[in-house]
Amino acid sequence: MRNPFPACAAVVLTAAALAACGSSADGTDPEAAGAQRPAASGPAAPGPSATTATEPATPPAGEPTVSAPAATAEGPKTPVDEITPATGTFTKEQKEYLKDRVPKGMDPAAVLQTGQETCDKLRYLVKADRDTAVGAIVTGEVPDAKDAVAGLCTQHQDLVDEAAYGYPDGKHTGKKLRPGVYRSASPTTDCAWQIEGAGGKELASGTSDTGKSRKITLPDSARTFTSTGCYAWLPEGAAG
């Protein structure tokens, strides 16, 4: 099925778009609440040489955002007591995030930038729509969210906690299923789902072409849950 939401690396943000996002309320803006899911990409992160994170810089119009090297690169890691920036110092939180994450020979500032970019993306998304931000964590569109939030932007911990109980599109079976009521986060107009019990017996199914959130119930007897075009399902009753 066609995925209407491009990958993060393909998104080009203009200065005007960034300015518009910055003026949105934190998920309470009536227009933001009903908006289509924005791409899981936010403003580029600033260079991490300062002792604390600062507001992201606005890239020139039409210039793509370049991500830092992956923080999970394989190979020997730099001991935490040897992790130092080229200038200034790292905060305690930044150094904790970098622990066991900086490959030998790599600039720790580049690894730190990866985490800061993750925090920037979450801040951008939650301003547009909170469910979209949680869904982006559930689907993995915002990678490394758990570690980045724990060390660099703890104000978003509630998003990570809720995402741990969500389901992305796909097929989920057995012990991975948790009974309860779920709502779709930023579904497409081709959202469809099916719930099956023992022996493949259909318990519930449905489709939605409205692009609006729908609610479903996973019963105790559910053994398989399949979803396409719905993006992600979040536990109902969580803070919103």
Brief summary:
Helix content is 27%, strand content 18%. With 240 residues, the chain is α+β, with helices and mostly antiparallel strands.
Q: Could you name the key traits of this structure?
A:
6-stranded antiparallel sheet; 240 residues; single chain; 18% strand; alpha+beta; 27% helix
Q: How would you describe this protein?
A:
The protein has helices at about 15-20, 30-35, 90-100, 110-130, 130-140, 145-150, 155-165; strands at about 165-175, 180-185, 190-195, 200-210, 215-220, 225-235. Helix 4 packs across helix 5. Mean pLDDT is about 75; it is low at about 1-35 and about 45-70. A hairpin with a 5-residue loop joins strand 3 (about 190-195) and strand 4 (about 200-210). With about 240 residues, it is α+β, with helices and mostly antiparallel strands. Strands 1, 2, 3, 4, 5 and 6 form a six-stranded antiparallel beta sheet that branches. About 25% of the residues lie in helices and about 20% in strands. The chain starts with 14 loop residues before the first helix and ends in a 5-residue tail after the last strand.
Unreliable residue stretches: 1-36, 43-72
First and last CA, distance: 29 Å
Structural class: alpha+beta
Give the radius of gyration.
20 Å
**Can you give the mean pLDDT?**
76
Please give the share of residues in helix: 25-40%
The major pleated sheet works out as: 6 strands, antiparallel
The ordered string of helix (H) and strand (E) elements is HHHHHHHEEEEEE
- The shape, in one word, is elongated
Number of strands: 6
Number of helices: 7
Share of β-strand residues = 15-25%
